[in-house]
Structure formats: structure tokens, C-alpha cells
Design goal:
Belongs to the hexokinase family. This protein is of the alpha/beta class and 476 residues long. 42% of the residues lie in helices and 16% in strands. It is globular.
């Protein structure tokens, strides 16, 4: 960076100090994380909801049957038909994706459920044209924080991922969904309402017995793991067997809403203040795909507006001033630019933002993207380490899904380095040696996982175990 002017060099150094999270800070965050996980399981509760899911146990690999899975995430609606075959841990899948229209995210509740029911009807008619169908059991992946007193029930705690529909928060979403389905006469029974993170863990465990934790690092972030019912004080009144396993949907995006430990910058504070839910999802706002591009954008606007720093001088940056105009895929492209002169990044700024960049500006832009991406990966490892330490896992696999984990350059490697620092593992004897706890690309949780949880729920009903099932008569 010898040819970078002094003012930009000083800014790069300032940003490095601002966004770098060292090993000491990672350990501090992890220790506080463990405390908050425990608090979420207590009767009093805490910021992290730690929602019991009523998914009770891992699959054996012997599950069979045909199931539908519906995945309602941030950007798309996906419908799958999954056939669990009699070959151990094998399945066939047919799927269709439907775009989630932006206007539905802030529209009327009825419009949302009608649209989802239309997509399901379309899927069934396309793939079962004219066939007389038995009732299809459905696993519905509802990837929003929901309180579940039963597996076929879910009260939305709060909207996330840019959704803000009146009249749904604090309500059970299942009757709304079922009413829209009934109106169309489609032979579908909602068997299990699940979270994508729980589905990720279950789907990954179906093919990998070492799998103990499921994570999502995408538009949002979250984790799930299996807890013993005896270690969930808030369920003590239900007198469940103490050693019975229960999948916990952590909803850890809400970690440190009190701002006690996360190393927030002034840019993180602005992201929070200007979001639809200030004071919520503190952890998510530092590591999830929805926010990485916005942090990056805010830094660049701030640098341009500081007259002592000469960046994008004399240029109209109106496009850059538009909130959320950049997402994490923009940062991915910056980090992936293979050319020494960063010409692809220059083209990106020119085409998307109508900004002409100099070589020194491109050096700063590249470093800033690396710093934001690295901080996200390193902080994400704190949550994984916290669950592993809480449960005493010395070795296990962690199934991770989501666009940031799968597509963001170096996210996996940066997270692995941070995990090593937090858990004080000895240096590897060879590059091929596996880490004791390894974060791997997950199986399809919102599809296969949802189908498996529906299958496990049906199996429980057949065995006469109705714990956590609101309408057992539905499963007959």
C-alpha cells in the first residue's frame, strides 16, 4: 500500500482497530454468551429466547414416507416434496421456488397467507395433476422467532428479516395458515411448525451421526442444539422425563441486546437506530447478511463526508446514500476480485453506484470489506463455542447453512480460526487434520429437515407420545 496517500492510510489503520476482534474479546463474548443461553432456559428468561421446539430426538435414518415441506424465509418461498426411502438416510426431492413479493412483507396478514396457500396449491397441482391424493403431511419452516407450546403451534414473537405485518405478532400463525389452505381444499395437514435452524440440525444428523448443532448464517443468524428436558427450568412444570431430548431454537440473533459485551462501532449503532426494531437483534446486526453491506455503506458515506479525507472527491454519491442499497453479495464480489489493480471492484462501483474510484480508494474499499466480513465470521464462532462449552462437547460436527456461510469468501475458514482461538486447541500436526469441532455445510434443513421432523412427530403419535402436540386427532 506504498502508493496510498497518508489520509487514506490513516483511515485504513483506524478501521482495522475499529473492526478487529482479538482472541481476548472473542473469549469474553463467548463467556457472556454461555450465561445468556442459560438465562434463556430459566423461568425468568433473558434476551435470547431459547425456544423449546417439541422436536424430541434425532432421526435414526430409518424414517420413511412422503412429506411436503414449506420454507418461508426472507427472500423466497420454497415448496418441496420429499420421499424418505427405505434405503437408510436416503431421500428423493422435488422442489419449486416462488419469489416472496416485497409488498407482502409489510402488507396485510391475509394477503401473506393467501399467497402462501396459492403457491402450495400450484405446487400440488403441478406435481400431482389429476391424481386423487391422500392427505399430505407438511413440515412448515417458519423462520421467525416463535414461541411453541406444541409442535403444531407457533406464536410469532416478532418479525425479523424486513417483515413488518400488523396483527401477527403475539398470535398463533397456524390457524391463519390452515384457514387459507382450507379455503382452497388442498389435501394438506400441517404436522409440524419448525424453525430452519432446527431443521438444519435434524437434516444434517440424518446423514451424519456426529452432528450436534445446527446454525444459519444468512440474511439472519441463529442456532439450534439438543438439550435435556431436565436442564430446561422453564419446562419443569410439565414433568417431562429429565433425560428426554428437546431441540432448542436459540434465536441467538438477540444476544447482547443490552450491549454489555459486543464490540459495537458507531456504524453498528446507526444500523440499529435506523432499523425497524431498534434495540433488538444486536448480534444479528453485526454478523448477518442483511446488515454487512449496510455497515460497509455507512463507513464509505462517513469517509466521503469528512472533508479531511479525500475519497470520491467531487462526485455525486446519491446512490451510495440510499440505505440498504448494498448487500453482502456486493462485499463478496469486492473480496473475490482476482485482479491486483482491483479492476472488477472499480467496475462494480461504476456500474452500481456511478462512482469512479482511484487505485488508493479501491485498496481502502477492499480492506474495509475484509474487515467487516472477518469480524462477522469471528463473532459467529462465539455462539458455536458457547453451545459447545455449555454442553461439554469436546468433538462434534456443526451443520451450517445460509447464504453468508455458503457464498461469502473465507467465512468458513475465518470462523474456524476464531473457534481454535476461543477453545485453545493445540496447533494442527498437519493441514489435513480435522478440527475437534468442525463447522460443515449442512444438509437441506428447511426441506429435508422439515420433512424429517414431520416424520418424527407422526412416529411419536403412533407410539402414543403426545407431549407437545396440540391436536393429536389431526395425526390419525
Amino acid at each position: 500500500m506504498a502508493d496510498v496517500p497518508k489520509d487514506l492510510l490513516q483511515q485504513i489503520e483506524r478501521l482495522e482497530k475499529l473492526f478487529t476482534v482479538d482472541a481476548h474479546m472473542l473469549k469474553k463474548v463467548t463467556d457472556h454468551f454461555i450465561t445468556e443461553l442459560d438465562k434463556g432456559l430459566s423461568v425468568e428468561g433473558g434476551s435470547i429466547p431459547m425456544n423449546p421446539t417439541w422436536c424430541m430426538g434425532f432421526p435414526t435414518g430409518d424414517e420413511t414416507g412422503t412429506f411436503l415441506a414449506l420454507d418461508m424465509g426472507g427472500t423466497n418461498l420454497r415448496v418441496c416434496e420429499i420421499i424418505l426411502t427405505d434405503q437408510k438416510s436416503e431421500f428423493d426431492i422435488i422442489q419449486s421456488k416462488y419469489r416472496m413479493p416485497e409488498e407482502l412483507k409489510t402488507g396485510e396478514s391475509d394477503e401473506l397467507w393467501e399467497y402462501i396457500a396459492d403457491c402450495l396449491q400450484q405446487f400440488v397441482e403441478t406435481h400431482h395433476n389429476g391424481q386423487k391424493l391422500d392427505e399430505l403431511h407438511l413440515g412448515f419452516t417458519f423462520s421467525f422467532p416463535a414461541t411453541q407450546d406444541y409442535i403444531d403451534h407457533g406464536v410469532l414473537q416478532r418479525w425479523t428479516k424486513g417483515f413488518d405485518i400488523a396483527g401477527v405478532e403475539g398470535e398463533n400463525v397456524v390457524p391463519m395458515f390452515e384457514a387459507a389452505i382450507a379455503k382452497r381444499g388442498v389435501p394438506i395437514k400441517l404436522t409440524a411448525l419448525i424453525n430452519d435452524t432446527t431443521g438444519t440440525m435434524i437434516a444434517s444428523a440424518y446423514t451424519d451421526p456426529k452432528m450436534k448443532i445446527g446454525c444459519i448464517f444468512g440474511t439472519g443468524c441463529n442456532a439450534a442444539y439438543m438439550e435435556d428436558c431436565g436442564s430446561i427450568p422453564k419446562l419443569a412444570h410439565m414433568n417431562l422425563p429429565k433425560d428426554m431430548p428437546m431441540a432448542i431454537n436459540c434465536e441467538w440473533g438477540a444476544f447482547d441486546n443490552e450491549h454489555k459485551v459486543l464490540p459495537r462501532t458507531q456504524y453498528d449503532i446507526i444500523v440499529d437506530k435506523d432499523s425497524p426494531r431498534p434495540g433488538q437483534q444486536a448480534f444479528e446486526k453485526m454478523i448477518a447478511g442483511l446488515y454487512l453491506g449496510e455497515i460497509f455503506r455507512l463507513v464509505l458515506v462517513d469517509l466521503h463526508d469528512n472533508k479531511e479525507i479525500h475519497i470520491f472527491e467531487g462526485q455525486n454519491i446519491d446512490k451510495l446514500r440510499k440505505a440498504y442499497t448494498l448487500d453482502s453479495s456486493f462485499l463478496s464480489l469486492v473480496e473475490e476480485d482476482p485482479f491486483e489493480n482491483l479492476s472488477e471492484t472499480g467496475d462494480l462501483f461504476s456500474n452500481k453506484l456511478s462512482i469512479t474510484t482511484t487505485r488508493p480508494e479501491l485498496e481502502l474499499i477492499r480492506r474495509l470489506a475484509e474487515l467487516i466480513g472477518t469480524r462477522a465470521a469471528r463473532l459467529s464462532a462465539c455462539g458455536v463455542a458457547a453451545i459447545a462449552k455449555k454442553k461439554g462437547y469436546k468433538t462434534c460436527h456443526v451443520g451450517a447453512d445460509g447464504s453468508v456461510f455458503n457464498k461469502y469468501p473465507h467465512f468458513k475458514q475465518r470462523g474456524a480460526v476464531a473457534l481454535r482461538e476461543i477453545l485453545d486447541w493445540p496447533a494442527k500436526k498437519s493441514p489435513k487434520e480435522e478440527d475437534p469441532i468442525e463447522i460443515l455445510a449442512a444438509e437441506d434443513g428447511s426441506g429435508v429437515g422439515a420433512a424429517l421432523i414431520a416424520a418424527l412427530t407422526l412416529k411419536r403419535v403412533k407410539e402414543g407420545n403426545f407431549a407437545g402436540i396440540l391436536h393429536p386427532e389431526k395425526y390419525k
